[in-house]
Write a structure and sequence with these properties.
This protein is an all-alpha fold and about 210 residues long. It has 7 helices and no strands. The termini are far apart. About 25% of the residues are buried.
Length: about 210
């Protein structure tokens, strides 16, 4: 990761259309920087659940499952990247897996920064001033959405209609991946249970 990558990210956050056009043309962008942002999405989500002021914290810290938080943040982004890449390949999209990873990571930057700011501000603001946090997080989510929209539009070189369809298809693809992953996990659980029962039966017959 170079200093120029951080400068490029800063430009993309302010000028997403031109920034991603340049990124796509010059084949720039840092998958490492994108990965750091996505990992920050996981860590800041975890940090938020533990460090958010009690006035705004509706999470049960004792019941926080790190594995589930990891699945709902980092793994979900990975699923979105894979689903988008698979769909864009079928629809003659121009972006490869690396570029899509970069776009998703860069698009998360405003929202991730907002999460950190929300955690800090929760210890300063009162309940009555909590509306400011809600407005800020909504703005960060919209900002991230715009960056993702323009990023996909530029790197895939889709029309507006096709870009909408690709984003909706990505959401459906994520659901399919989740469903298939759930089936695979159930299948392995049944397989392990079957093997365990066979081993127990053999032990009983040999030693009892």
């Amino acid at each position: 990761m170079r200093k120029s990558d951080i400068k490029e990210l800063g430009y993309i956050l302010i000028h997403p259309y031109d920034g991603f056009e340049s990124l796509s043309y010059h084949k720039t962008g840092s998958p490492i920087l994108s990965g750091i942002i996505i990992m920050c999405f996981f860590f800041f989500t975890l940090f938020e659940r533990h460090a958010l002021s009690f006035r705004f914290n509706f999470y049960s810290v004792e019941n926080t499952n790190i594995f589930l938080v990891f699945i709902s943040t980092f793994v979900m982004v990975c699923m979105a990247v894979i689903a988008n890449w698979a769909l864009s390949t079928l629809w003659d999209g121009k972006a490869n897996l690396k570029t899509i990873w970069i776009v998703f990571g860069y698009a998360l930057a405003p929202y991730v920064a907002g999460m950190l700011a929300q955690t800090v501000l929760s210890h300063v603001l009162t309940i009555d001033e909590g509306t400011f946090i809600s407005i800020m997080m909504t703005g960060c989510a919209i900002w991230s959405g715009f960056i993702l929209w323009f990023g996909m539009l530029q790197v895939q070189e889709f029309s507006i209609g096709k870009n909408i369809a690709c984003i909706l298809g990505t959401l459906i693809g994520m659901l399919l991946i989740l469903f298939l992953s759930f089936l695979v996990i159930l299948l392995f659980q049944e397989l392990f249970a079957f093997i365990k029962s066979i081993i127990n039966e053999l032990i009983l017959r040999i030693f009892v």
